[in-house]
Amino acid sequence: MIEVRNLTKIFNRGKFNETVAVSDISLKIKDKSIVALTGPSGCGKTTLLSMMSLILTPTSGEILYDGDNLLSGSDNFKTNFRRMNFGFIFQHINLLPQYTTIENILLPLYAFDADPKEYEERAYSWLKKLGIYDRATHLVEQLSGGEQQRAAFVRALIREPKYIFADEPTVFVDEETSRIIYRIFMELREAGKTIVLSTHDPELIKVADEVYRIKRGSLA
Amino acid sequence: MMKKHRNLLNYSFDCLRRYRMRTAVILITFLIATTMISAVLFTKDGLEREAELSVDSSPDLTIQYIKAGRAEPISTAYIDDIAKVEGVDRVLKRTWGYAGIGSNTYVVVGLDPTGLDYSRGVITSLESGRFLMPEDDGTGNVVVGKLIAGMLKVKVGDDMILLSESVDANKFHVVGVFSDESSIYTADMIVMCLSDANDFFKMPEGMVTDLCVYVEPDQIPNNVAAKMTSMPNVRILDQDLLLRGYRAAYGARGGIFTTLWTILLVAIALIAFSQAIVVGHESKFEVGLLKTFGFSTLDIIEVRLVESAVLGFFASSLGMIIGFVYAAYFNAPALVDILLGWAFLPKEFHLPVLVSATSVFSIYAVTVVPLLITTVVPAWLNAITDPELAMRRAAA
Ligand SMILES: Nc1ncnc2c1ncn2[C@@H]1O[C@H](COP(=O)(O)OP(=O)(O)O)[C@@H](O)[C@H]1O
Ligand SMILES: [Mg+2]
What we know:
Chain A is of the alpha/beta class and 220 residues long.
């Protein structure tokens, strides 16, 4: 279970452009569920997601995974935790343009004490399943937005992480890809994964077990 | 842990391949810098070694006659007094000076025909012909340096004319040409027997330029020299003093080396620094992404360090090879002028290039080290910032 307690993020604190992006949010996310954060643009979804996934340090508050407050850990500890447990799907997809699809997918594995090649088979079966098998050795620049986001899913799932964080995963993709994404999320939940996502997409919200509405940095 | 380090290594090489422009810029600038540095250093080392070799082959002690603080011809009458000093094995006469051919100046050395075998060491290594023999005294037979042979286009068996101070034409006959192994110090040398040199320089009867003292094998030259200090009007030079003289001559050009080094160091540091900032900026996003995947700060620094080390070592090594070839096979055009004061070297002459471990090490030190340092700082700064921007920005 992920537990968020009184989480606050203030950007540029004390400066003229101080922004309170997230203000005193507390919530609990059950294992093996899909949780959606929704709300108008600029309400703080990405900021909250970043803090929960330990890639942004909160101004104050606590984040507990199965009862452990991870914010008290060192940077290295958090990095290790991310490596072992998290998968990321980004709004802007963020594949590295100079790499091929398969190279992008195997990239996270370079941080592990394992041969990335051992994961190739798994990667290809995912690519086949998502209908982009024939794009594996293309530079990602040559892929459409939807194809790119499908490749990004394979990258996030290659190590079968326990938690998946997805920031507006369907914004820049076509309808067909969106439908594939809904299906993957449901399958992952079946497989026991926990998914935290932010979205405006009503269809995606329908898939969620729980929906948090955020307004100007606070739960509505 | 081994597999992970191999992965990081592979990733470093990937980066070098993917950021071709950046790789090329560093490679080319470092290549030019190390080529210049190594050509200068290797040649300088070679010259220094030559100086030491030539000192080795010079007498244990050299005795000059001093008048008004300057060296003047010395009377051979001194020989008997010196030979009596305890520890002295042998005293030989030597007459030497400078002669001009065209606009060039050469060193003319006249050796004592009774002690030619004492001109030991590199001085006698020949490329063709033979060295002088006692019978050559008075015949005008000479052995010439490679530089002279090349410029006057003379070979063994040819005659050559030297003009003396009184503008008499003196005909000499070439019997030998020195080889490369004694290049610099015999390059512009014309070696002949004593009486030919005395005639050529019009030395007064019974006078020579200096006296060469060889001590007994179990004697220390300095101790023997100490016993001669009571002799009036002489200066005693030992090998140490000669070597110091050579070093001082280099010291005069040392300023050039220091300036060169400084310019290159500053240039390298600047290039490395600006590159590192560009790289740091460029890769900020990529590092953020890698950190979300679980690459640690150390992992990222490792990747960047390997990248820089590979690039730095490759560029410097290649630069040294080019610098060596430039100096050793092409006689370092443009460089010999600064180093030796010679406008050019004929093709048949080779610079005494020496690749010493110290030079190789210092070249690596001034190229690779600044590159590594300027790599670590931005990499570390990137690596310790929150990787949140992976969520914010699209990949470049
Ligand atoms: N690095 C930052 N510096 C300053 N302000 C920021 C930064 N990141 C986000 N913000 C601000 O925080 C607020 C919440 O942003 P965000 O979490 O991206 O919202 P959402 O994802 O819901 O659109 C916005 O007002 C945004 O401008
Ligand atoms: Mg957002």
